[in-house]
Amino acid sequence: MQEQNAFYQLSGTTAMLLLVGFYGLTFLMSLFIGKKKENVDSYMVSNNAVGFGLSAASMIATWIWAASFYASATSGYKYGLSGPLHYGFWGALMILFIYPYGRRFRALAPKAHTLAEVMHARHGTSSQLIMAISNLLGSCISLMVNFTAAGALVSVLSPLTFIQGVLIAGLGVLSYTLWSGFRASVMTDFAQLVAMILAAIVIIPLIFFNAGGTDMLVANWGNLSSEQADLFSTTAILEQGAPYFVAVLAYAIGNQTIAQRLFAVREDLIKSTFLTATIGYGAVVIGLGMLGMLALFVGLSPADGDMNNIIPQMASTYLPPFGIALFFILVVGSLSSTADSDLSALSSIMMTDIYGKNMVRGKPDPKRMLWWGRATMVVATMIGVIFATMQLDILVMLVFVGALWGAIVFPVIISFYWDKVTNKAFTTSVICAVALFTIARFELIPIQGIIAIAFELFASAGVGVVLGLMTFAFFSRNIALCVAFLAIVVTVPFAIGFLRDYPVLLSSLTSYGISAAVCIAMSWKNKERFDFSLLSERVKSFQQESASSNDASIEVDDQPAPARA
After folding, report:
1. φ and ψ at 173, to 5 degrees?
2. Do 435 and 290 reside in the same domain of the chain?
3. Where do transmembrane segments lie in this chain (predicted)?
4. Nearest to residue 233, comparing CAs of 244, 243, 241?
5. Containing domain of residue 515, as a range?
6. Which ranges of 361-448 would DSSP assign to H, the alpha helix?
7. Which of 33, 183, 199, 494 sits most deeply, having the most CB atoms within 10 A of its CB?
8. Measuring CA to CA, how many Å separate 36 from each of 39, 180, 239, 347, 543?
9. How far apart are CA 505 and CA 510, in angstroms?
10. Are residues 392 and 465 located together in one domain of the fold?
């Protein structure tokens, strides 16, 4: 096995020039779209009028973040041929499956800023706060992950320290996002994605050919186990594919960065934007995952046993200095595009759901609202930097946030289609799902005997819920119900006695199953029917401006057109 303990390092001067140049250019770009008198709706969702090119690019750039960047390579290294496909393909489906539901959300509440805001109009404060708090936690953790990854990259590939890397990334992202908010995030996402794609086009083939090309693949095929050489590996499906498949809807529904772009893009461009983002994200992430697979072929051992070192090691081993500089920009761009999206998401949640809907009860002062948004960005950056410098293990927090997002998927979606769902049913179903997820995931009680069977039955129901929701996105309710029923019937015989050995998959599926069961049971006999037309009346723009057409900074792709009814 090849042991790589030393990384090629850029000089301190080169690293600083690359960082200052990258963040300096993005800051200058943000100056061109700044306004002296900011509109709060433009600051959060660009007045719901973002064009096709910017929307698709922003969606792709936002979701190529630290976790997907490094985890795709780890997946390729651990699972071989099928690893990158599992990670990139199911991640892309996350974007694909949200757009039909997104069109429903926009049709009911075309002027919304956050999904939690719409839940407030549909159910009330408790449901809204569940959504808002889960989004706040998720975005804060994402921010920490990206700052941590930036610090690690800088410390590995330059003489700068980890803390210096974290501080530079934090201040750099804040500098260009603070004043213009979401508009700056979308505009810089486009430039960052272009830079990332150009760098990837150079880096991935260069590593492949420098590592030996096709001759190396043929000669080193023996380094792969039978499972790693199998494109349909059972191990990869159970440990990587299936859990990620279950998670795709949770991330799509629970993450404000996607919802924010959903509410920002022109309504008639939702389908084309999300389809393009699906293809773009899948292609880039699968390509990055191939670097991990190449590391497996050449017999590379991750430095210090850390899988996150795979990509930096491959770059350091097989790239010339200019290639390492390109790789440096590739990673910094991917981390920054997601970090600025997290800051924009956090500010919109604080402005809309905390200040606008709760602190002032729907009567916000636009100037004060903007102050809350910008203050949130500053505080969130400080928190992200502090926790990143502590290098905490954030896996447990990610698990909890993922569980909370999985628990809310069914109640959120069904609330926009079934007029009998109540606030009590929504809240209770989420609480029950999170509680049972925690028990199963961390085995707080022995998962065996009748208890294990009960969890496996709920998990089987979860399979039906996931497949049913994905079917319902594109087909009729009756077809979705048939798919869900058949999925449960087929899954139960295999799940009993089997799923208990896979706690991650068992707990995630249980979260879906129990939330659906409780929500349906509590809403079934409700005689009150909700009038969905009330949503558009209750969810309005916060600030009406006669000169809103001046907000052309984001509408550069296309001229704004009337949204479809």
Report:
1. -65, -45
2. no
3. 6-33, 45-65, 85-102, 129-154, 160-179, 191-211, 231-253, 274-298, 318-339, 369-388, 394-418, 425-444, 450-472, 479-499, 505-524
4. 241
5. 422-525
6. 366-389, 395-415, 423-442
7. 183
8. 10, 10, 51, 19, 16
9. 8
10. no
Same domain, 210 and 242: yes
d(Cα 480, Cα 462) in Å, to the nearest integer? Answer: 14
Nearest to 209 by CA among 324, 311, 331, 294: 294
Residues sharing a CB contact under 8 Å with residue 371, sequence separation 6 or more, in sequence order: none
Structure tokens that stand for 354 in this block: 């905390």
* Structural domains of the chain, count: 2
443 with 346, same domain?
no
User: What is the greatest pairwise CA distance in the chain?
Assistant: 70
Long-range contact pairs involving 230-236 (C-beta distance under 8 Å, separation at least 24): 230/80, 230/81, 230/82, 231/81, 231/82, 231/85, 232/82, 233/79, 233/80, 233/81, 233/82, 235/79, 236/79, 236/80, 236/82, 236/83, 236/86
The Cβ-side half-sphere exposure at 492, using a 13 Å CA radius, reads: 10
**Do the domain assignments include residue 116?**
yes
DSSP line for 316-335:
HHH--HHHHHHHHHHHHHHH
Q: Is residue 161 domain-shared with residue 208, that is, in the same domain?
A: yes
- Indicate left, alpha or beta for 361 from its phi (over 0: left) and psi (-120 to 50: alpha): left
Per-residue tens of pLDDT for the chain, all 565 residues: 444 445 788 999 999 999 999 999 999 988 887 777 778 999 999 888 899 989 999 988 888 876 677 778 888 898 998 888 888 888 788 788 888 999 999 999 999 999 999 999 999 999 999 999 888 988 888 898 889 888 888 988 899 998 999 999 999 999 999 988 999 999 888 888 888 788 888 888 999 999 999 999 999 998 888 888 888 888 888 777 777 777 777 877 888 898 999 999 999 999 999 999 999 988 888 888 888 999 999 988 888 787 878 888 898 889 999 999 988 988 898 889 989 999 999 999 999 999 998 898 878 888 899 999 999 999 999 999 998 887 665 555 555 666 668 899 999 999 999 999 999 999 999 999 999 998 998 889 999 999 999 999 999 999 999 999 999 999 999 999 999 999 999 999 999 999 999 888 899 899 999 999 999 999 999 999 999 999 999 998 887 633 343 444 444 344 333 333 3
Choose the final residue of a domain: 377, 406, 435.
406
Q: Which two tokens stand for residue 172?
A: 């750099």
Same domain? For 94 and 235 the reply is: yes
Q: What is the CATH number of the domain that holds 282?
A: 1.20.1730.10
Do the Cβ atoms of 433 and 406 come closer than 8 Å?
Answer: yes
* 162 SS3 class: helix
Tokens 């969905």 correspond to what residue? 532
Tokens linked to 90: 């199911």
End-to-end CA distance of the chain: 61
In a domain, 357, yes or no: yes
CA 351/CA 366 separation, integer angstroms: 9
Cα 291 versus chain centre, distance: 22
Q: Looking at the structure, do residues 227 and 263 belong to the same domain, yes or no?
A: yes
Q: Which residues pair with 265 in a beta bridge?
A: 50
Domain boundary residue, one of 406, 435, 462: 406
* Within a domain: 281: yes
Q: Are residues 292 and 146 in the same domain?
A: yes
